[in-house]
């Protein structure tokens, strides 16, 4: 259907399952993709730029892949940090099914591929890694980031890749203004027409005076 997008909740287009070969976390893998999800035929350029420019993952904790698609960021995190719990979030049920299939194929038991509302409210993330769905529109994108960025744990980072000509610079300015006190926003890298943006949540200042021994 012409109205089908990768951010459609239940794509009506044919599934057309296919196998692709990709290298994730230093491993050559055969994974399953399908029509009706983002970049079904290859690892997209933006995600490759993100992988090339993001730091090593924390050793454990809860991680978030926001807009997981068929799972390249989720699978990379799950392979690289086996003691972490990876939350793969998408509104596209087909994408979630593919991420679950691929995680199961790789024997990964630390992946939860779920709808946004199925992430427990008390989960805080040691990191967010995302190629966010820019084409959902500015209002929806801003609402999504306002929902998830504040769920970063203290002294934790979100790393996102955004195409330069799809508004990466204006998004950076918006995040710097929106999140303000307690956060810092910077452009961490540029490559192949993409920006890698880093959002850092700093520690909360103490609300009571700290007693220092004399």
Account of the protein in words:
This protein is an alpha/beta fold and 214 residues long. The protein contains five helices and nine strands; from the N terminus they run ββαβαβαββαβαββ. 25% of the residues lie in helices and 30% in strands. The strands form two sheets. A seven-stranded mixed beta sheet has the order 5-4-3-6-7-9-8, sandwiched between helices. A two-stranded antiparallel ribbon has the order 1-2. Helix 4 links the parallel strand 6 and strand 7. The model is unreliable at 1-5 and 209-214 (pLDDT under 50).
Helix content: 25-40%
Number of domains: 1
Instruction: Point out poorly predicted stretches.
Output: 1-5, 209-214
Shape: globular
Proportion of strand residues: 25-35%
Brief write-up:
With 214 residues, the chain is an alpha/beta fold. It is 25% helix and 30% strand. The protein has a 7-stranded mixed beta sheet with strand order 5-4-3-6-7-9-8, with helices on both faces. The protein has a two-stranded antiparallel sheet with strand order 1-2.
């Amino acid at each position: 259907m012409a109205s089908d997008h990768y951010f459609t909740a239940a794509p009506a287009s044919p599934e057309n399952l296919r196998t692709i070969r990709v290298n994730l976390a230093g491993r050559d893998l055969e994974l399953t993709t399908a029509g009706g999800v983002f970049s079904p035929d290859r690892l997209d350029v933006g995600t490759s730029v993100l992988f090339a420019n993001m730091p090593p993952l924390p050793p454990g904790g809860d991680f978030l892949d926001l807009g997981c698609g068929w799972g390249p960021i989720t699978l990379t995190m799950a392979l690289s940090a086996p003691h972490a719990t990876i939350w793969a979030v998408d509104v596209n049920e087909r994408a979630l099914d593919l991420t679950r299939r691929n995680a199961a194929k790789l024997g990964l038991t630390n992946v939860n591929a779920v709808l946004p509302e199925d992430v427990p409210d008390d989960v805080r993330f040691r990191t967010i890694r995302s190629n966010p769905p820019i084409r959902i529109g500015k209002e929806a994108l801003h609402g999504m980031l306002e929902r998830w960025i504040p769920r970063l744990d203290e002294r934790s980072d979100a790393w996102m890749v955004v195409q330069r000509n799809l508004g990466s610079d204006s998004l950076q300015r918006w995040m710097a203004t929106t999140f303000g006190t307690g956060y810092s926003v910077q452009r961490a890298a540029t490559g192949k027409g993409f920006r890698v943006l880093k959002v850092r949540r700093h520690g909360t200042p103490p609300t009571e005076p700290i007693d220092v021994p004399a």
